[in-house]
Protein 1
Amino acid sequence: MKQEQLPPEDDAVEVAPGVLRIQLPIFLPGLGHVNCYVLEDARGVTLVDPGLPGPDAHAELTTRLLRAGIPVERVHTVLVTHSHPDHFGGAGRLRAEQHCDVVAHAQFITPFDQGDNTLEGDLIELADNQQPAQPNMLRELLFGEGEIPDIPGRTTPWGGDPILPPAEQLEYMRSWDSISKQGLLSLTPTVRVVDNEVLRLGRTDWQVVHTPGHTDDHICLFDPVNGTLLSGDHVLPTITPHISGMTPDSDSLSQFFAALERVGAIEGVTKVLPAHGLPFDDLSGRVTAIIEHHEDRLELLFSIAQELEGAPVKEYSERLFKQRSWGPMAESETYAHLEHLRHEGRLENFRDGEGVLRYQVTP
């Protein structure tokens, strides 16, 4: 079993100077926990990535904090590394209930912020967050009675069927208590940060490192005094993060490579604390391995393109991924890799009569 799939440990552990780790349970494909890091100062504590939304997740968070001797009332700041629900989900309720600050990148936006009239496909793929839902639609979904309202599906840039959130997930959200529902309406950060900004968290100054690719708003935090890097999902110990094709950048894989190389070149990193899995110390080695993994996937995809001759993204994804992984996430990552090959000039695409993108080897 991969480290990232392990169930959460019960006890809090000091994993670096001034950094306590509690592990929260999550049940997502390939993941068994999320690491929530606790940074204490004279005023109370900052939490980094407080887990999923909802009453069950909040109960786990408060129980595990108390087990470490930390009442939830001591939380004065929450920092979110990026806009995926297993990272930002607990922040809204903490803000609504404890009136704490929520810190995130300047581009941070969730599926539940103001925007157009679609409810994010992130409810399915827990990724990508550029087309958020109207607050009235979300409020009706959460607080309404009777049948769940029709939710328009999210269109994809590669065409095909719109992505729809599963009905059971929407029913589960409606069953939440009021403060948990209000948390989803309270996710706008109170503090937005940019690359290279220095934040005082706990008793340490941390440098913000913007690392797009997994999401457009992903950040890592570096403590140069103690050599600690909070890597979020950007660099994980044994798996690679989902690289989405549904970000504003037309070549998210190229963004990811550049951000990996930048992080791998940071001098003085002695301890990497990921959002999933266990601490590790060979940052440059892990960065190299992740890049090589994606380069291998690109070559495999190119060889598939030589066989398929103008196939849609779905067909490529079902060749690239095992059947258990088929679906929107696999198609999104496949699209990101196909687009990277197109930007390199190795593939070209065209839309068929139904508006579906098809890719073929460049003559």
Protein 2
Amino acid sequence: MENVTVLGAGAAGLAVAAQLKARGVDCVVLERGPGVATSWRGRYDRLRLHTIRSLSGLPGLPIPREYGRWVRRDDLVRYLEAYAEHFGIDVRTGTTVESVKPGADRWSLRLHDGSEHSSRTLVVATGYLHTPVVPAWPGQEAWTGTLVHSAQYRNAEPFRGKNVLVVGPGNSGAEIATDLAEGGAASVSLAIRTPPHIVRRETAGWPAQLNGLLLGRLPERIFNPMAATMARMEMPDLRPYGIDRPAEGLKTRLRTQRYVPLQDVGIVRDVVAGRVRPVGAVQSFTETSVLLADGTSVEPDVVIAATGYGTGLNELFDDPSLFDETGVPLVHGGAAARPGLFFLGYDVTLGGMLRQAAIESRRVARAVPA
């Protein structure tokens, strides 16, 4: 039986494993994929971090300067590989955990090969971007076109010359829409249900991440109008192009929906230029068309659903009281959710995912008994 087991060899899992090791606590890391950073490896080719390199490194090893200010996907994967090697973390790849059950003084994990793995302490760091979610739109089973989740998208080449509808104006959806427009798609539409909060990734060298860190502690009644004013100052009015201004404040959406703003890396330019056409929310499918909430329809060859992810934790644990209605642990980021059970990497902040993972890794490592 292991003393401590960490689930997930992404940034949060590696960070907490390194912090545990620094405190003299041995652990093993179980990873379902063929290597560390599995989720990052599977993201689209043009992806860069939306947080600056100097505020995205994990404890004990900064991201190399030569990776630039906005780190590419492949460079982040290389960094996480180097991080695991630097700290000598025991990562056991190709190990899928199918269920977790509590025991008297241990946690029992059933693995995909039918074997069992027991651990006195279990740290779950599988992330909130774990399981792709596609809405069950009425009629989609009859549609004759192609429907994929954004998790399956790599680059625009397979969609050259095709009419593509991207559903969801989050960071992934907007960046994929821009990638398609630049990559030769015949047409690109972006379906929007709730108008996004759009910010520039940086203004005169000042990154949006620092605004989040400096202003994020302000109460909603101050932060929301301040963010709206800043958006009107730095962004063109997109209402003539089909994107309304958000009705709900940014920090309110962060609190109630775990929402982060859309960082503009080309989508505003492409909407204004007509290369990406905003349309209404998807309502349903017919055999050849997609019906929208405003009563219009489009006839794409391909629909790319940038409709988010679930944690997948409800399928792993049989105790629903651990999680909220979206599958996020009710207790995470430091304190034990149950004796010997910890979750980290499930918080969403304006300061950045990797920075938050670094903070939480220290908290959890201090809370885990030696």
Protein 3
Amino acid sequence: MSAIESRRHRKPIRLLVVDDSALLRKTVARMLEDVDDIEIVATARDPFEAREMLAAERPDVMLLDVEMPRMDGMTFLQKVMQHRPMPVVMFSARTEEGGELAMRALEIGALDVVCKPGGSNKPLDVKERLVDAVRAAGGARLRTANTPVDSVPAPMVTERRSGPYKRSIIAIGASTGGTEATNQVLRTFGPEDPGILIVQHMGAHFMAAYAERLNANHRIEVKIAEEGDIVRPGLALVAPGDRHMGVRKQGRGYRVHMIDTEKVHHQRPAIDVTFNSLAACARADAVAVLLTGMGQDGAQGMLAMKKAGALTLAQDQESCVVYGMPRVAAEIGAVDRVCGLTSIGQQSLRAAAQ
């Protein structure tokens, strides 16, 4: 059964929209009116109305504005996660402060952040992101711990890694739930470990804040990838928003290059583009890691990497927020090892040493 047929046989996702702007509420309603598997069951102007709608309508997912009068969305998100945990997608403005708030919302427990329409953020692009985010949230497994991952001390590595490494690159792909998953995985890595490439499905306007947050939290350097950046130990390069990231062989090493082609699996950056590029140029000199997320991006690229000699790891169902991409990869035979989130970082280093 295809993904479209599967959605037709399921009940629509019941959505509560919370935004103080009547225009934005109407805009969201228009965006979703022809989406059969999403139904807006209620709207609210602020968290106080939203609280009543939560009790009366019991929605599956809440779309929550970040900035509102009387009580801001971040405060309400914290209260919801403490007292009535549910899938939440944040609706944020395109500002530098908006990016920082988006990262904080994901720490608290929001599953995704969608940028509001306006400026270069076209309504059709917003609709595509919004539909994907709500669908993923509708099938998500909520994080049960109230403690943000950032507040957990980095684990002590008690065993010596099996160096020197035989593989130069560890490539990580993630979607819904991936911001917290990559944050957890990167705790394992140190300055001497292989270069890392990260492809995270996220709105382009939030990518810089995401990379800055990872850079502040870990022992390695993390930055947005730029054309010609060298893939080297102790550095994680994050694919920039709205551009695919490829890799080219140069001498004994590798450099990244940006690709401005069409979206793949409705995504740009797409994991498959990076994985396929590595299959072509790095071959057995790489490790592929596929984390939580909806859809199938990364699965075929991971299979190509495996056939080229790379070792491949996927997150297990139990620890995934959305067991989509890793599931498809496992089903098509692309996965060498299935690992829990707490061990997949260490396992990727072991793979790099083999």
Protein 4
Amino acid sequence: MSINISFGGATIKRPGAYSTVDSSGMVPVTPGSLKVLAVIGPSGTGATITPGTVAYFNDPKLAAAAVGEGELLEVMNVAWRHGADLIAVSAAAVTDPATAPTDAEWQAAIDLLQPEEVSGIIPITTQAAVWAKVDTHITLMSNTKNRKRRRAFYGHAAGTSIADIQAAAAAIPVERGLLATPCPLVADSTGNKVVKPGYYMAAAIAGIWAGQESQQPVTYKLVRFDGLEKIYIGQEIETLLEAHVCPIESVKNVGFRIVQGVTLSTSDDLTQSELSVSTLKDDMSANLESYFETKYVGTPTVNGIEVTIYNDLVSQIQGFQKNGWISGFVSDSIKVSRNGTVFTLEWEGIPTLPINNFLITSHFTLK
């Protein structure tokens, strides 16, 4: 008899543990290297890496020899400077430099990442059409069946207006995407500050995200560049945040700072709109899947197994709290039920939220 279970919007047909998240009970609030990154794009001058393959690097010198000099290597170096460790490279094949790469070549490079274990993707392009391909890939690979739980970090072209940035964000209103702005300035070998495409800024944010614990927000973390193409004023920053764009600001005597780590999701649900909380969902789901799948799938349903599984679930949840992934959980919500060979596990927890605001009122009197 084949397995045929409806769960998480999908029909499960193979053994294993599958996890989904219900955040409908989240109350909107008014005013976390630990992950592998991947870069997709054409390789540089002198590259020895073979297009059509995925290679991993955590040493800039080895990467330089394989990837070649160019934007792909520069973006990897930005991510490394900001905390990333292991970076996968999917080099797009380029048959005609005048059209480098074509839509088909971009798609082939994206598809190469399907079996890989990567969490964050940085496409080395500002083309909305390629972003859409990456988003389709991430949606597919992050679904209940494929369980890869990926997200992308995008950057716009130099000279893009706020209106066009808003439009670009509106075209991909997804939890698993982040759009960074503005473009950074990078000093060249002569000291001149050159505007780089926004995916350099996206790589900085991705590097920070990859190199810290998931419950740590990227909010208010510093990015290391030589300047910003545009210094946003407060009203412009609010406009960008309302458009679900992740802005960087210039702070006197401090540096260039991420204002808030927001995803492209238009939801008021912080488990979707806050990068750190959204990441925590992925980590907890993946941990539960891995634990119960490794320990139980393929073993017999001995007498009292439900109690053993229940106790293990409680232990896992307590571990989440100890690690700072959740601030608490509802004990009575923890349930384990069985239907034949299928065990259903449920629980309710409070994810760790970032501190985003202080509202301070000072009262003074003269006596």
